[in-house]
Structure formats: C-alpha cells, structure tokens
C-alpha cells in the first residue's frame, strides 16, 4: 500500500463527502472530476454514465456525460468513440468495477493505428489514459476516463491505488442517484392530473406558456399555475430540470 500524507487522506475524505452530498447525479460527476485533480493531475477527463438496465457490453448507450477541459469538437468525437473502444467494451463485461491503465491494455505501437488515437489523442498531444469502469453486481454503470500528455508521464501505482479505493464508492453513489431519479419520475407520473400530463408533454416539445395556453384554450395565468404544480410534484424548479428528470426515466 502506498504511503499517504495527512493532507492527501483529508482530500480523499473530502472527495467522498462531496460525492455523497451531491444533490444531483450531474453535480456528483462534476465534483468528482474537479476534486480528484488534487490527487491525480490530468489534462482532460470525462465521466460517462450509461443507461441503467444495459446488459450487453457490445451496446454502449451513454445517458449523461460530464467533461473537464475538453473542447466541444472533441466532446462530439468522444461521444462517437469513447466508451465504444474495444478494450473498454471488454471491461464492461466484468462483474464489478475495475480500474484500468491503458498502457497495460494496449501496446503503444498498436494504439497509434487506432482511429480514436489518430483523431482524439494525437491532435491534442495526449499520450496516456487511465480510469474506472463502473459496474455494480454485473450492471454496467459508467466509465470515468483521465488523459495526460507526455509531459505528465503515465499514471503511477499510487494514483491507480487511489482510483481503486474510490471505485466502489462511486458506483454506489451513481446507482443510488439513478434509482432515486427513476423513483421520483415514476411518482410524478402517478400524481399528475390529466391536464398536467398534457402540459408536461407540451413542455417537453418546447412549447412556451403562451403556446400551451392557446392550444389548450386556457389562460396564460392558469397555464403558469399548472406548470408550478408540475414542478412541485417532480421536485424541480425549471423546465430544463423537468426535462432532464423525464429523460432520466
């Protein structure tokens, strides 16, 4: 076991506190990528959560992604290639969360011929990658990836150990949030009135309050009251949060 300084132990503790204290899944993902940088420096990172219930490792369906220091064009590229890489797909078939060091999985010379390396690594001068494949009792939950340039060097034994210590905590926190979202969304459906369900569908379609009022032959004031009740029942404060919660079902 590597030696840890007092401040490093405190940082680990703070990471766990932030993670378990996060109100939303996206907040948890963002906090982890930000906090872990104090112990594991990196150039870029990505935290992807997969669709719950996904059973086949060869079908990677990303539900939500949070990036740190990744330009928009490379985010799109990552969505196309990221978790779909062969070595990560193989790891998604594992029964429990696993930490990976890419240099242990792929020969350096072979990797240079891989399309993702040519389009993502090389243009950004990235050379090394490590991360966690999140799995809980055979259920694939997500992938956390960290990238470094040649300047930083490869991820060392201590950094891999830190990820190994945190992996089960992250998996537990992620699945707790996903199950909570699912329960809240189902509860919202059960307690909405028929009118509120109509309005919810129109909100998802992007209709304004005025458009909803016109289509349903009600006043804008009445529309706003219905929307307030919908927000209250789903435990959200705005349209964006409502749509995110509905899409999380």
Q: Give the overall average pLDDT.
A: 87
Could you tell me the CATH topology label of the largest domain: Beta-Lactamase
Number of separate strands? 5
Rg calc: 21 Å
Uncertain segments of ≥5 residues (pLDDT<50)? none
Strand content: 15-25%
- Topology as H/E string? HHEEHHEHHHEEHHHHH
What is the number of helices? Answer: 12
User: Structural class per helix/strand content?
Assistant: alpha+beta
What is the CATH architecture term of the largest domain?
A: 2-Layer Sandwich
From the N-terminal CA to the C-terminal CA, the straight-line distance is: 41 Å
What count of domains describes the coordinates?
Answer: 2
Shape: elongated
CATH superfamily of the largest domain: GAF domain
Level-1 CATH class name of the largest domain = Alpha Beta
Question: Strand order within the widest sheet?
Answer: 2-1-5-4-3
> What percent of residues adopt helix (DSSP H or I)?
40-55%
How does the major sheet shape up?
5 strands, antiparallel
Please give a structural write-up.
The chain is of the alpha+beta class. The protein has two domains: 6-180, GAF domain (Beta-Lactamase, 2-Layer Sandwich); 192-247, Arc Repressor Mutant, subunit A (Orthogonal Bundle). It contains twelve helices and five strands. The chain has helices at residues 6-21, 25-35, 72-81, 86-91, 102-105, 108-111, 115-121, 157-191, 194-204, 209-216, 220-234, 239-247; strands spanning 44-50, 62-68, 98-101, 126-136, 139-149. Helix 1 (6-21) runs parallel beside helix 8 (157-191), helix 9 (194-204) crosses helix 11 and helix 10 crosses helix 11. It starts with 5 loop residues before the first helix and ends with a helix.
